[in-house]
Amino acid sequence: MKVHRRPGRYSAFTGPDATVAGMSTNLTDGDLLLRLEPAVEENLSRHIEEAEDWHPHDFAPWDDGRNFAFLGGEDWAPEQSHLSDVEILSATVGVLVADNLPAYHRELARALTGLGAWWKWTGRWTSEENRQAIVLRDFLVLTRAVDPVALERVRMEEMTRGYSAPSLHVLDIISHFAIDETAAALRNTNTVALGGDEVLGKILTKIAADDTRQATFYVNVVNEAFGVAPDQMARAVADRVSGFAIPVVDLPSKKNSTEALAEAGIYDEDQQRDKVFKPLLERWNFFGRDDLGDDGKKAREELAHLA
Questions:
Q1: What average pLDDT does the segment 147-151 reach?
Q2: pTM for the complete prediction?
Q3: Is the model's pLDDT at 164 over the cut of 50?
Q4: Read out DSSP for 153-178?
Q5: From residue 126, how far is each of 130, 131, 210 by CA, in Å?
């Protein structure tokens, strides 16, 4: 795993460094992976027991499909789309997020050997995200809801950005995905609540349930990490909350996608604060912890506006 130094952070390659007098020595990423593995194994077992078995092909409207010009049919045209801008936006963001989240797979995979619990969870989670991307892309292409060429281009751009992103520490990764999966579940649930295409609603309902279970996994592992390295975990949470953002999508109407999500009531800054950040911080007892040192308290102060 690539690990870049930051103030108060430690390299997986060089081991723990000395810290300022009176402050605790941080754990390396390798140490953290080992210390957290029992919690990962426990939560992986729970996740598998609770997971619902569903298949993308059951939700793909195959009867709606027809050839594009390459095979003698007709290429996509805007008038073929039957979805609203809001539905197009929500589904497209879903494809981008599901495709790109496993880019972080490499961050864990580089540090893992054998077939331990971390490795098994990473494979399980990646396969679930892939299932979400498959069903959404099949639906969008079969129904000609979006321009398939534009969808593929924006997907490639988003994947390239994710692959080129700076490497993260283990605690950053689990914090990020606790937030990301919680936000995804909220967006999908809100889209379903608006009404609209019935099949898309069924797809997003399944995906939201997956997102919720995945978020629970990461939330629980973060809780365990607070018990192992509270200051490091607090720092990671503060960094990930402060830097969190969902993908921006080019809409057919040329409208700003972030504004479109907000106007439709699917996702906005107020919902992000009240239904994503605050509930997660509460589940981690972020503002009530009595085990934080100076570094952890400083990180907590940075998020005081969310208390």
A1: 90
A2: 0.85
A3: yes
A4: HHHHHHHHHHHHSPP--HHHHHHHHH
A5: 6, 9, 12
Please give the C-alpha separations between residue 68 and each of 119, 136, 149, in angstroms, as whole numbers: 40, 19, 11
- Identity at 307, one-letter amino acid code: A
* CA distances in angstroms from 222 to 125, 136, 252, listed in the order given: 16, 29, 39
Integer Cα distance of 254 and 219 in angstroms:
36
Q: Which pLDDT score, from 0 to 100, does residue 16 have?
A: 39
* Confidence band of 21 (pLDDT split at 50, 70, 90): very low
Nearest alpha carbon to residue 222 among 238, 233, 235: 233
Tokens matching residue 251: 């809409």
Handedness of CA 188, 190, 196, 201 (dihedral sign): positive
Spell out where 63-116 has E strands: none
pLDDT in tens, 203-261: 999 999 999 999 999 999 999 999 999 999 999 999 999 999 887 766 656 677 788 88
297 φ/ψ angles, rounded to the nearest 5 degrees: -65, -35
